[in-house]
Amino acid sequence: MTMRSLTAPDTETLVTGVPAAKKRRHLRRAAESYGFLAPTLILLFVLMIVPIVMVISYSFQDRAIMGSSTDLVGFDNYVAILTDPGFWKATGNTLIFTVTSVAAHLVLGLTFAMLLNSPLISAVPRAIFRAIYVLPWLFTAAVIAVLWRMLLAPNGIINFLLDSNIEWLASPQLALGTVTFINIWAGYPFFMVSLLAGLQGIPQDLNEAARVDGASSVQRFWNVTIPQLRPIIISLLLLDLIWTSQQFALIWMTTGGGPIDVTEVLSTYTYKLAFANYDFAQAATSAVLVLLMSMVLAVFYVRHQKARD
Amino acid sequence: MHRRAVMLAGIATTAAAVVVLTSCSSGGSGESADGDVTIEFAQWWEPELPDGEFRALIDDFEAANPGITVDLVSGPYASTKEQLFAGAASGTMPDVVGLDGAWVNDFASQGVIADLSTLMADSGYDDSELASQVQVDGKTYMIPVVNFVYPMFTNDDLLAQAGIDAPPSTRSEFADAAEKVSALGDDASGWVLPLSLEAPNGVQNDVMSWVWASGGSMLADGQPDLTNDDVTSATEFIGDLWDSGAIASGSFTMKEQDKVEEFTNGRVGMMIDSLAHINLIRETNPDLKFSISAIPAEDDYTGERGIPYASWGIGVAENSEHKDAAFKLVSYLMSEETNSKLSTMANAFPGNTKSVPEFVADDDLFATAFEIYKAGYPANEFTGLPVAEELMRQFGEQFQAALDGQQSIPDALEKAQTAWTAEF
Q: Which of A261, B280, B343, B363 is the most buried (most CB within 10 A)?
């Protein structure tokens, strides 16, 4: 008590009207919050913000990384990339590859998910089918690429079975379709597993009610199953569009973007700019353009997620 | 309690930041308090050599040079390349680096590899024993440690079945043999031509080799010259082979290892390949009878034949703080004795002119290859060129379009010439 009476008057309280102790408590609480968040925030900053800002800054430079000194060149790199026919060819191929893959992933994933969810199949065959269908998902891109290169080689098993000598990956007419097929094979299990979880979450009452109302199986599919799965389907589609549009390893290891440029996609185009041409400025520019395109999809995804919440 | 948690979080954050920052700034090599140094040596050689043999060679170096420790950073070729380019960008290149001739120009112009001419002069090194040096603007940046030459391999049984009793030595004989082998059926093809755009070195080893074998060149005064008669003649010769169906299927996505596999499995009559694969072929298919010859030349050509080669080159990083120790390692690897050992274990020809690999005396095929090597001259015009791999890829794309019938070969050469000129 004596000590407190000796303390000087709290001038801050007099000026602001907020007791200093209360303010300190607020500050301490805020400091605590940020103290807990700090490791994540720093990692986020170091691992995401810094690289993205660096890549964006490279896209405005000349001879970025490779030059001992660099100059700012404004939008020159953007003009160079956007006027390069190779970029648009890669964009077109990316579009075909992505849209076809994602659509097929959905159809195959839903078909297999419904098969696995069907009461017509008993538990043991269902477990076997589930293991078989999910297998492609367990392989890495490198294994998938090597596996399919061997299967589709002119002297490979597929041609042996078909008694043909088709150059599945080396033919300019077939290569894009072939790598798309491989990507479909590699990616449908993600849809299958997610949609199976969704199907198992649909209350049986809804189907029962529809059946009592006289709905056929097709009507039940379109009016019960699909509306129930819609939020999952939209999330999966958006995520898969983002992932597939950036597929690199599979294409690089099967065709390298060739023959000629028929399987060149934006990721292989960017990689070649960086690691074959050593033009990191233009590679960064291409990467920023890909980022912008992905951002459009990401915005849709976030808006969709928010709407769900 | 809360305060302690905040403090712990703060410590964790600081520690994480310190770890991140130190890992960013570390160059990898160092000097201890007693003056001992550790140098890093990044290369793709160790994984390609028999287990433990390269490390043993380096152990000998450490024993002979107390105070220097060598930290081997080994990985496959492609990842070594990416690691070096990333290290070049961040100034953290290992002290000693394994180099491919195709990278030298880019590294030298970026100023990230040291001028070896200066290091040689400073240390009083006698370079007269070096078989070759890769230079940019008159300064040496890479020394080829060992060279792998690419002669022609022929499957003797397949050729015999096709009625050919000796490996072809001219283009006409080659075309005749290739067509006859392809006519045998049963998936047999006369020649195998890898033109993958992922690893486009087929352009160097399997296409341009035909130009060099007849003394031709793809350059004029150091500049691209793809439309000259030599290149046109060689590429049209390949185009004719393609049209006649003498080339194995799948060329456009085929890589070097696919080529070797096709030959090893007895499906192709002829291929141009590295001597490094002789043992692999023998181990994989001991029954395969094959020979080695010089790459066929134009029918009326009588001059020396260029034989393509690839090198395991070595250089020193400009950012190295221990260039003296680094150059000691370089000179050790280039010494007569060590270079003999290394070339023996790699099945390659030595970069030191006095070194003699043991396999030359022990093995007929290598002895033949050595004769071919000595009778001709090593040729690889991509060595030292800017963005060499990209040049191969640009050529490969145009050449593929020509073989696919989308354009003529002269048009392909014209377009490749334009693309190349833009890179110089």
A: B343
Task: Identify from B6, B21, B80, B252 which residue to disrupt to test chain A contact, counting A C-beta atoms within 10 A and taking the largest count.
Answer: B252
Q: Does A202 touch chain B (CB under 8 A)?
A: no
pLDDT for the residue numbered B17: 47
Question: Which sign, positive or negative, has the C-alpha torsion B111, B115, B75, B148?
Answer: positive
Contact yes or no for B384/B183 (Cβ under 8 A):
no
Amino acid sitting at position B401: A
Residue A112, CA distances (Å) to A7, A201, A239, B11, B118 in order: 77, 16, 20, 50, 67
CB–CB contact A38 B85 (8 Å): no
Any A CB within 8 A of B57 CB: no
Is residue B304 less than 8 Å (CB to CB) from chain A? no
B171-186 mean pLDDT = 94
Are B198 and A36 inside 8 Å of each other by CB? no
Summarised one tens digit per residue, pLDDT across range B34-72 is 678 999 999 999 988 888 999 999 999 999 999 999 999
Nearest CA among B296, B273, B298, B258 for reference residue B365: B273
Say how far apart CA B111 and CA B109 lie, in whole Å.
5
pLDDT digits (tens, 9 = 90+) for A217-262: 899 999 999 999 999 999 899 999 989 998 999 999 999 998 999 9
Least CB–CB distance from B397: residue in A38, A154, A260 = A260
B106 CB neighbours in chain A (<8 A) are: 66, 278
| A11 or B185, greater pLDDT | B185
Q: Do B252 and A259 touch (CB under 8 A)?
A: yes
Which residues on A lie below 8 Å from B82 (Cβ)? 275
The answer to whether B21 contacts chain A (CB < 8 Å) is: no
Q: What angle do CA A189, A191, A197 make, to 5 degrees?
A: 100
- Confirm if B265 and B189 have CB atoms less than 8 A apart: no
Q: What is the ipTM of this complex?
A: 0.76
Beta bridge partners of B271: B153
Taking CB atoms and an 8 Å cutoff, what residues of chain B touch A35?
5-6, 9-10
B11 or B239, which is more confident: B239
pLDDT of residue B242: 96
d(Cα B59, Cα B79) in Å, to the nearest integer?
Answer: 24
Residue B300 has pLDDT above 70, yes or no: yes
Mean of the pLDDT values across residues A87-107? 96
Q: How far is A125 from chain B (nearest CA, A)?
A: 39
